[in-house]
Structures are given as C-alpha cells and as structure tokens.
Write a structure and sequence with these properties.
The protein is α+β, with helices and mostly antiparallel strands.
Length: 774
C-alpha cells in the first residue's frame, strides 16, 4: 500500500532567519517563536505592538491554493462575517508569499497572517448550549457567504476532503489492534454506504476544517476561525460534519451537543432532509479518516509530536457511535430543528412477520436467522429500517445497481405517458427488440417478451417442441429453471430437493453437472469439458425417445456457481444436434455482461444456441424477461395459435429494458465485471491459500463462488460453516447466500456497480471471519 509521506518533519529555518525575513519582506521587527500544531507556524510579536503569524508553506502547497485562501478570507471579511480570520499581509512587493532560502540551503515560502485571538475550542472547557449554537451559526454564515464564490483551484482533491474519505479505507490494514480494525471497518462501511448520496446534495466552497484547534472561543462565543488550507469545493454539509466530529469529541452527550450545533446552523442555512440523512455518516467518515491517517502516520514516525492529538478521542467516539443505529443518530442530530431526516422505519419486524404469516403463503422463505427489513436500495447497497447499510453481493437482479436513476427515470417517464400491450404499435417494442437482438450472435434475431424467467423458459420449451414435434428434454443435474409445474419438473434442484418427487418425470433426462471440482470428471481443461459433453451423448444414446432439446444454464447458478470446463457446450451441442434436438441456453442469472469476457456467458464457450432465455437483470428488478431465437424456429411457432402475454413487452417494460442496456453500455459494466471480477477471484484464491476450509474459489466476472469443505481430500461439504459464514458476514454488513446441491457454496453475484473498495473490504472481512470460525 502507498504510504503518504506528507507532513513528515520538514526542515525548519532558525528564529534569526525568520526575524531577518520579517524585517526584509514586511518591514516588521520583533521576536519569533514556534506555535503548537502540525504546521510550521510561528508567532511574530512585532515591535509595533501587534502579533502576527508567520506561516511556512509545505513544498507541495500550490500558489493557487494560497491565492484561494486569500480570496476566500477577503470575501468573507467583505461579506461582514463577525469573527476574526487570518488575513494575509502582503509583502513589500505586494505579493502573498515571500520565497527565501535558509542557512542550510532549503528554500521556503512564507506568508504573514493576522494573528487571530481566542482560546482554541479544545482548551475552552465544556461548551455551553449557546456556544454550540454559535459554532453552528458561524459555519452557516460562512457557507452562505461562500456559496456565490466559485474559484477554480477549489475544485481539487485533498487528503482531508470529507466527500472522498473512502481513499483512507485501505489504511485499515495498518491498524495494529484487531478489535479496532474491525471497528474502523464497520464505521468506514457506514460512511461508504452513504457517501454516494453526496452527489445529490448541494456543493459549494467550504472551509472544511472547523476542528477543535481551528475554532477560537472567547466569552462563550466563537471569535475566530483559522487555517483555510483544507478549503475546497465539496458538499456544503461537510462543513457542518467536520465541526460536529471535533466538537463531539470527549462530550458526555455527543449527539445532544451535535444537535445544538445543527440547530445553530439550521437557523441560518436550513439543512435539507437529504443533508440530514448523510450527516451522521459524514461525521463518522471524518473520525475514520482521523484514525486511519494516524495509523498511516505511525508507520512513518510513531513519536511525531503533533500527529496523534485527536486519535484516542476519535477512537472513543467511534466506539460510542458504533452502538447507535444511523436512523437514531440522524433523528437525534435533528432533534432541535423542524426539518427531519426521511429515514422512516415503519412497522417493526415482529409485526411484519405476524401479518406475513397471516396473509402470505408460508412456502416463501425468509433469508437470515434474524430477518432483515429493507427500506431502501441504492447502487450496491441495501439499507435496513435502522439505516444500517448492507453491501449486496446477492442481488444479480438489480444488475446496474439498486434504483439506478436512469432506469427509474425511464420507467417513470413512460408510465406517465402510456402503458398498453403488444397488440398496438409503439416505437419502444421494435426498438428494444432490435437492440436486444444486436447483443446476440446471428442467427439469433427474433425476440419474445414475457414477465419472468419461468415464463420465458416455458415459452422456450414450447418453441422447441413446436419446431421439433418432440416433448422430451435433457437437463443438467442440480439445475433450476423456474416455478411452473413443467419447469419444476425440469429442475432437479426442485424435484430432487425438499418436497420434490425425488425422481425425474419420464420426459426429463438428467445429465451430470459439468463440475470439474467434485463431479465424475475432475479438472478445468478442455478434455474434462469434452468428457462431460460426452455424458450428454451417453444419456441420449440410452434413450428410446427423441429429445426436443437440451436446456442448460451457461454458468450453473443453483448448481453452485459452476463454470463448465471449456469445450463442454461444444461437445454437448454436437450430441444434441446430431440427435435432432435444439440447444436452449438459460442466461437468466448470468447474462448482460456479468461474465465479463462476453455479453452472454455461452459466448465464452464458442457456441451459438438455438434459443436464449433471459430474465432477472434484463429489467433491473422490473418484471421483464425475453426469449430470443432464430427466424425458422419463430416461424414454426406461428402456426395459427397466437402467443400473447398481457404485460410482456409493454411500453414501460421496453423503456426500462432499454435504459438497462444504456447503463450497461455507458458505464461499461461488462468490462468492469471482467476487471473487478478478476481482482475479486484472485483475492478469493489468496484466501484459499490461507484457509483450509475453502475447497475451491471459482467463477467468471462478477459471478463467483467459494466452495467450502471440511476436508480437501474427501471434499466433505462444510454446509454449516457456509451458513455460519453468511450470518457472520451479514453481521458485518455484507449480504451473501449459500447454494449448490450440498449447500456449501457461498454465492457472489452482486449488482455490477460494485467497486474495488467494496471487494477489498469483503476480502478482509471474509479473511477475518474465516479465521474466527470454530
Ligand atoms: N432460470 C434460472 C437460471 C433462474 O435462476 C431462475 C430464477 N432463480 C429462473 C430461471 C426463473 O426465473 P423467475 O424467478 O423470474 O421466474
């Protein structure tokens, strides 16, 4: 990991050199002494009876940033702000900075600032309510005054920029204490899950560093604000969040104190609902930055005098905040104002369970030992009724991210205009069908639109049966293809599972799972793939009936995230086609770029099916599914009996489906799946080296699996450990599930907008939790 070396001990000129500088450059005589704090600041007691601060700039501080500070301070003064600010005195040449060289040959840039009197907040004792409100008021006045000032150098990255505090997350690895590491992980997770919402709140130029050394107090009022070095263009609410983070340190009732600051701020610059919702996570983000930067600095110099002043207090506050639900924290911070965060929790879990039991069929299961009540989804996150975020590694349906704004807008827009059925002409249907067909290789060109993967598979069966005049099917062991009676009959996952018949119906012929890890042929090479392909031929050879087709997932989902070895589908298709059957590929779980290398996972095997079935991600959660086939197959189906689906392919569905394709293209999600999936799989393979429990880490793109075993020789499945790991990861805010016929495979199939930080966090958490499994 890259360790920043900023703020390492810089060369210091002598007092004599500084005195000489003041005289030459500013015409001031006096005495000079170092001021406490991280920065190279010196107090100049002028013979004119005035005090000044001489500030040496770090080498990497661009002149444009000094200009920015100057313009901000002058702007604030001219707008009538009633506190003292460190105004810059120009040197004799009228410049903001003076360059000089010290006796050791080091060059420096100095500025002379007005001395700002007052006691630093951290030394002023417990703050009164009035002082807390005054801090809020001043910050709001500053933010309002700066709102109309947009200076180009302010649009910059900065290591303390609260909107990008996530950059410090990887430093968690440098925290020595495992308990604290887990605490930082949890709190960074909270910050990271709310940070994307900052895109929706107002941005402006802010001071961004109202910490407890920079805020100066006298007579129970805020009288000064120092240090404009962190100023930048950021979400305006970050101003308040930074101040809250420091003012809450050591406070016996931090959120109550925070509420007073918020109230002071709100009276001048009203805090909007969405700002209130991100405020607590932002405070947490600042505290996380403090402890992460401290961990980084310790790796450079554990004894540096000023680097760790806030660290211990920040840990204490993080500890306290870890026990508070984000909804409660947001409500408490807003307790003294009329605006409220819109994080309503609704009915409690016991009530929901009760009414569900009363009125909803109990064959539906509920995930996790303690069920989750989810109230919101955004990107790769789900949020429960307490505001706790969960990184979603389960929902491949919300392919381009939960509630993607482009998809939502497309649906809303179309719903406002027209929703009807396919018996009318409308632009969306033809356009969408064309776009969808264009993603597939020739001769797959004719689309049918339906409402679920099951319905699509049903239609695929009918298409193949009409075309071939046959009714027997080949299907892969462990597969799931849908919930209708025929598809349950074609899903070994169901008919061999609990409540199932325990054997296939006469028209269903099961071929072995092409599982190179645990199956009858071992290995991931072409010869294994072909050996499994020949198993399809073997089953066909044993039949005394002709088959209509072979229905197969291109990557086996319910089968346990299995990637068939290369050559499998080529060989299997040869056998099926020789027998006069059609090859139907179910891409319901894995299509639309998830496999990374291709849009459709079957393409990775170099085959072209006769019929492709798609669902789940196609509408990003909107009930839409499709079947795409060749013209001859489609024409054979047009035998006089109409095929009609009331909702299938309606204008709203087409608009949504099209918006999903837009996002996949615009955000280059297929390539993202390739790159991020590669990184993820490499990380899982590294975990396998550390943890005997992992028998195999496998997958393609963002469709990954971890098969857990009690013994790497016997492959005894570790289903209980898999279930336990899923629960433990849930407690850490990561949603996973188990699958596979032996229930020992951890499934990973997140929304495709997952990012590298998320993956690294998951890998750290998996490593940690696997180390703790009994
Ligand atoms: N095929 C596969 C591979 C699936 O995973 C599923 C759903 N899990 C289906 C078909 C059925 O889709 P739906 O639930 O939309 O009917």
């Amino acid at each position: 990991m890259h360790v920043e070396n900023q703020n390492s001990i810089a060369p210091q000129p002598t007092a004599e050199e500084l005195i000489a500088l003041c005289e030459q450059a500013y015409g001031l005589r006096g005495t000079v002494g170092r001021l406490p704090g991280e920065n190279l600041n010196f107090l100049l007691q002028g013979d004119d009876g005035q005090s000044y601060v001489l500030k040496l700039a770090g080498e990497d501080l661009p002149a444009a940033v000094i200009e920015l500070e100057h313009r901000m301070i002058e702007h604030l003064i001219s707008s009538g702000i009633d506190i003292s600010l460190p105004r810059i005195h120009l040197n004799r040449s009228g410049q903001l900075e003076t360059e000089f060289r010290d006796g050791d040959g080091h060059s420096h840039r100095a500025r002379l600032l007005e001395y700002v009197g007052g006691t630093p907040w951290c030394e002023a004792g417990p703050p009164s309510t009035g002082l807390l409100r005054d801090l809020g008021r001043i910050l709001a006045e500053i933010d309002l005054a700066l709102a109309d000032l947009d200076l180009p150098p302010a649009h910059r990255e900065h290591r303390w920029a609260l909107a990008s505090a996530g950059v410090h997350r990887a430093k968690i690895e440098l925290i020595d204490d495992p308990g604290r590491q887990a605490l930082a992980e949890k709190m960074f997770h909270l910050y990271a899950a709310y940070a994307p919402r900052l895109a929706e709140v107002p941005h402006s130029l802010i001071h961004s560093d109202a910490n407890d050394e920079n805020v100066l107090v006298a007579n129970d009022r805020v009288v000064g604000l120092l240090d404009f070095a962190d100023s930048l263009y950021n979400p305006t609410i970050c101003e308040l969040a930074v101040a809250l983070a420091y003012a809450m340190l050591d406070h016996p009732e931090p959120l109550q104190a925070g509420a007073e600051i918020v109230a002071g701020y709100h009276a001048i610059r009203p805090v909007a609902q969405d700002e209130l919702e991100v405020l607590f996570p932002l405070v947490v983000g600042r505290l996380c930055t403090t402890v992460a930067v401290a961990a980084e600095r310790r790796s450079i110099d554990p004894d540096h005098p000023n680097w760790y002043v806030t660290e211990a207090r920040a840990w204490d506050l993080l500890e306290r905040f870890a026990a508070i639900d984000p909804t409660d924290a947001a409500a408490e911070l807003a307790s003294a104002i009329d605006s409220k965060p819109g994080m309503e929790s609704g009915a409690g879990i016991p009530d929901l369970l009760r009414s569900r039991r009363m009125h909803v069929g109990s064959s539906l299961s509920i995930a996790y030992e303690q069920p989750l009540k989810i109230v919101r989804g955004s990107g790769q996150y789900l949020y429960d009724h307490r505001g706790r975020p969960y990184l979603d590694l389960v929902n491949n349906v919300c392919h381009v991210g939960h509630c993607h704004p482009h998809v939502v807008a497309a649906g809303q827009h179309q719903m406002e205009r027209l929703n009807t059925n396919t018996r009318y002409l409308y632009d969306g249907l033809a356009e969408y069908a064309g776009r969808l067909a264009a993603t597939l290789p020739d001769p797959l060109e004719v689309c049918f639109f339906v409402n679920s993967g099951s319905e699509a598979n049903e239609l695929a069966l009918r298409l193949a049966e009409t075309y071939t005049g046959r009714h027997d099917w080949l299907v892969i062991d462990g597969a799931y293809h849908g919930n209708t009676s025929r598809l349950v009959g074609l899903s070994p996952y169901k008919f061999m599972g609990p409540g199932g018949k325990g054997h296939p119906e006469p028209w269903v012929h099961v071929v072995p799972m092409p599982d190179g890890y645990r199956g009858i042929h071992k290995g991931q090479d072409r010869s294994t793939g072909e050996a499994y392909g020949d198993e399809v031929g073997r089953v066909i050879a044993g039949l005394d009936v002709p088959v209509a087709g072979f229905l197969a997932e291109s990557l086996l989902g319910c089968g346990g995230q299995i990637v068939p070895p290369p050559g499998y589908f080529q060989r299997a298709f040869e056998h099926v086609r020789t027998a006069g059957g059609l090859c139907v590929i179910d891409e319901v779980q894995v299509g639309f770029g998830r496999a990374g290398t291709h849009c459709w996972a079957f393409e990775a095997q170099g085959v072209i099916p006769d019929i492709v079935v798609m669902g789940k991600p196609i509408g990003n959660g909107h009930p839409l599914a499709a079947v795409v086939t060749t013209r001859p197959i489609a024409e054979a189906f047009a035998n006089g009996m109409e095929y009609f689906s009331t909702f299938g392919g309606n204008p709203v569905s087409c608009a949504i489906g099209m918006a999903v394709l837009d996002v996949i293209e615009e955000e280059q999600l297929q390539n993202h799946a390739l790159e991020l999936g590669g990184h993820f799989l490499a990380g899982l393979k590294t975990l396998k080296e550390k943890h005997e429990l992992i028998g195999e880490a496998r997958g393609m793109g963002l469709f990954l699996g971890l098969e857990l075993v009690r013994d790497r020789e016997t492959l005894e499945p570790a289903a209980e450990d898999a279930a336990e790991l899923v629960e433990r990861m849930k407690a850490r805010g990561v949603l996973l599930s188990t699958d596979g016929p032996l229930h020992n495979v951890i499934k990973i199939k997140p929304p495709m907008v997952l990012n590298r930080d998320d993956v690294d966090m998951v890998l750290r958490a998996l490593n940690d939790e696997m180390s703790k499994l009994p």
